[in-house]
Amino acid sequence: MKREIICDRIVQAATELLAEGGREAVSTRAVCARSGVQSPTIYRIFHDKQGLLDAVARQGFERYLADKAGLPASADPVEDLRRGWDLHVGFGLANPALYTLVYGDVRTGRQSPAAALGAAALAERVRRVAAAGRLRVSEERAAHLMHSAGRGLTLTLIELPEERRDPALSALAREAAIAAVTTGAPAPAGAGEPVTAAVVALRAALPGLDALSAAERTLLTEWLDRLAAPAAPSV
What letter does residue 232 receive in the DSSP assignment? Predict the structure, then answer.
């Protein structure tokens, strides 16, 4: 228990320093002075400064996602995707230092633990849209597009002085991204886009199909992924 208390004290001190002065303010010396612990304790618990920053980011995002998860799902999963976007942008603008700590420091091939939490929450919202037959692309492609558009928009707004931020910019980007990955309304399977939506919906329901064996589920997954993939351009 003592270790948990010390760990929380260190993370709280680093969080306060981050909010006050950005990443550069979170030095080992400053964290020690703020938390009242010695530097060997910080390194023993977090190994290095990056480990401490990851802990700060993860704790901040866990609190944000807990608040987000408290919102009840509506009958319209696309509207919930829209609400999720607004909450994400609002969180970034309210916590710019924490947000840029998570999303502003890109490391090739490595996603921070906090970013992984956010990606998992988005994937779950996208899965609900897919299950409702409202996706025109695969779940993975929809999640990647929504994530990249939301992150880019939020970082852009953070960079701008508050007086220069266009309040309509987020809504414009949100609606463009949603229109790119969703259908207007559920539709019976026919040709073209409705077929893709039906395929993606079945793909989302696969984990719950107990009538299929593991091998059958794997094979059907491969077929559905192939059907959902965009056709190669004609030469």
Answer: P
